[in-house]
């Protein structure tokens, strides 16, 4: 078994932007030459998270509304009172979603469902450049 | 170190059904012959998730009520307006819980707490047959 | 590639206490001698979870308020009616956050953001001694 360390660069618009990174993940897996193993994805930073969704316009509109219920944008956050950067809601949302996602692959194929894409959710209140760490373990 | 790819088949009733898959996970780990490593579990599909709970009837009643607060069944979702399948809430809940869970094991034993079980939460609005991907890495 | 199994002991105050375990995770990684791989962290028990946050006093005050919206302390839980231990909210919160977190490392450094710390969130309604399982895979 071997390890391959890779990076996936993503530009986001912030404000609960969902970016489908499945093609990049599949591409890096292919370039590694591994056929069987796991892809560990991790987003450095505390205002973004990784999960999977069916990447279609309806859900891309539903997700920000759901996060408004859990951590509203217009609430007063202690974080913002201290630091004045206005992204307290983004920190809470990112902590709930989590920064890591592990996707298994077999026979050179990510074991995703047909209507399931890997997404970076960027909760920050401004556009960001993200570099997702990817650690492939396999053979 | 080696890799073993396995599948755990689960029938669910949908509607926030929780299925305890701990026995199947332990069984597949045992059959692999590995004593020390990690079990990476991943549910293909975008309306189910994996986590751990104390699997007892009280919590099995509490969980659906909690998810009603986070993503209510009776809300109008953009996803449903587009596709008419009525499971928008299931997609949101699955994105929040996440499709992957990694459980370490040592000396041939999953490192779970005494009152902690691995569960598949199926949020879809109908019974489903799920095939959970399981990638064991260890020795 | 090799495996190293370790344990991180943490004392918590309970009641949504956040404990920064980044120094212990980095220390155990260093002692393993591995330079490149993944750190799989898993908290046994069903009333605590692992995630990352910017560990600063504002967010440490915001997090308990966010969890009150998702799973209020003063709600009546079926779990508590059955078992009388008063920590139904803690079980729900832990199921949402999840017990596992996987952090990649490269060149002997955890691939965290500058303002991102690994935290144990203890939702139980009393102080607890936790032993986090840590499985390092790497070389």
Feature tags:
homotrimer; 139 residues; alpha+beta; Jelly Rolls; five-stranded antiparallel beta sheet; 4 helices; elongated
Account of the 3D structure:
- The structure is a homotrimer of 139-residue chains.
- Chain A has 139 residues and is of the alpha+beta class.
- Chain A is built from four helices and eight strands.
- In chain A, a hairpin with a 2-residue loop joins strand 5 and strand 6.
- Chain A starts with a strand and ends with a strand.
- Chains A and C meet through strand 1, helix 3, helix 4 and strand 8 of A and strand 4, helix 2 and strand 5 of C.
Write the layout of secondary structure elements.
3 copies of one chain form a homotrimer.
Chain A: E1 2-12, E2 17-20, H1 22-32, E3 37-42, E4 48-53, H2 57-70, H3 78-83, H4 88-97, E5 100-106, E6 109-110, E7 117-122, E8 128-138
Antiparallel strand pairs in A: 1-8, 2-7, 3-5, 3-8, 4-7, 5-6
